[in-house]
Design a protein that fits this description.
The chain is of the alpha/beta class. It folds into three domains: about 160 residues; about 90 residues, no CATH class; about 50 residues. The protein is about 45% helix and about 10% strand. It is built from 14 helices and five strands. A five-stranded mixed beta sheet has the order 1-2-3-4-5, covered by helices on one side. Helix 11 runs parallel beside helix 13. The termini are far apart.
């Protein structure tokens, strides 16, 4: 007898991962945000040993080269103050509500691939790994952090057989932290605060996460950050079968900016994006929205992927994407944008 799968409740997200991963990569991909995150949440001994002002994005070509594993996390080079080498600071994002059991094995694969590549490149001094896991869920992780030894058979003394290659990592578990006690600079608190609200399904409390915006005096930076935060909130609402409509956004902005909310709405949703994408962000791109909105969201998705991976999108590439109306083509472009080796390769494919 075939058993029907359980029905999803209203508050249970229909999907997890993609939109959250994209937001984390987009926001933490900013060097200043990443450095600020390390400063406040990493091991102080590590922070004291490296030059945070000289952090640079690191190459990740050594991971997923054969197609069997593709890195979806962020890697930065952190030079040691004494000039003897570099730390590779890797942020691993885990938003599942399950255990961290597989993390040690994943990290061992990462550093093995990195060291293999560095040896082939002729490096005499290998990079030092520093792994930090940012975990979001409704409940905090309980018990000791998993180790590779957990996977191995044990002797009578309870210790694993063999010479165990353990690997250390730091976990930042957002469910263990009170919202009002989140620390760091303005942008970091905006990002971490919104992550905490949205992943813990506190959707209606998202305006609280926007409060640090009032600390920013540059209105252009303020609008840009607000646009990204509302885009993420809209996708979180849609994942829970809800809509972040204009009324909710207007009330949230009114509580922050009072008489300026209408101006903020206009500049956020009309300044840089076409009308379809603008309305799509405001309304959460729920099912049944107009075709133009869906097209705008699809264009925005392609651009967001390219901006996350390559930082800057050439004007001619952006123009081609914004002029495309075929949804099938846009979906194909989004998939290719996530896997292509370079902007040049992507540009050749769409022209």
């Amino acid at each position: 007898m075939e058993v029907e799968p359980p029905q999803r409740t209203r508050n249970e997200p229909k999907s997890t991962g993609n939109y959250i991963d994209a937001f984390v990569k987009q926001m933490f991909g900013r060097i200043l945000v990443f450095a600020d995150f390390l400063r406040w949440y990493a091991d102080p001994e590590f922070v004291d040993a490296v030059e945070l002002t000289k952090i640079q994005p690191a190459s990740t070509h050594y991971i997923g080269k054969d197609g069997d594993e593709r890195i979806v996390d962020l890697v930065f080079q952190c030079p040691l103050k004494d000039g003897s080498g570099i730390f590779l600071a890797v942020i691993i994002f885990e938003h599942q509500s399950g255990s961290l059991k597989k993390i040690p094995l994943k990290l061992l694969r990462y550093i093995s691939a990195i060291w293999d590549a560095e040896i082939k490149e002729g490096k005499k001094v290998l990079s030092v790994p520093y792994f930090i896991v940012l975990r979001t869920a409704k409940k905090p992780h309980r018990g000791r952090l998993p180790t590779i030894a957990n996977w191995l058979p044990k002797g009578r003394n309870g210790k694993p057989w063999g010479h165990v290659p353990e690997i250390r990592y730091t976990v930042v578990d957002l469910p263990k932290r009170n919202f009002g006690e989140l620390v760091g600079g303005t942008e970091l608190r905006l990002v971490v605060g919104m992550l905490k609200k949205m992943t813990e399904n506190l959707l209606d409390e998202f305006p609280d996460a926007l409060l640090p915006l009032l600390e920013i005096s540059d209105e252009e930076v303020q609008r840009e950050l607000l646009r990204e935060l509302l885009g993420f909130a809209a996708k979180a609402f849609a994942a829970h079968n809800r809509r972040l409509d204009n009324a909710k956004v207007s009330r949230a902005l009114n509580s922050l900016f009072h008489d300026k909310e209408r101006t903020m709405m206009k500049t956020i949703f009309e300044e840089k994006f076409d009308e379809g994408y603008a309305v799509g962000v405001a309304q959460g791109v729920a099912q049944g929205v107009a075709k133009g909105v869906v097209q705008g969201e699809a264009r925005g998705k392609v651009l967001a992927i390219l901006q996350t991976r390559f930082r800057r999108v050439p004007k001619d590439v952006e123009k081609t994407i914004r002029s495309m109306t075929d949804l099938t083509a846009l979906e194909s472009w989004a998939e290719f944008a996530a896997t292509c080796e370079s902007l040049t390769e992507f540009k050749k494919a769409i022209h």
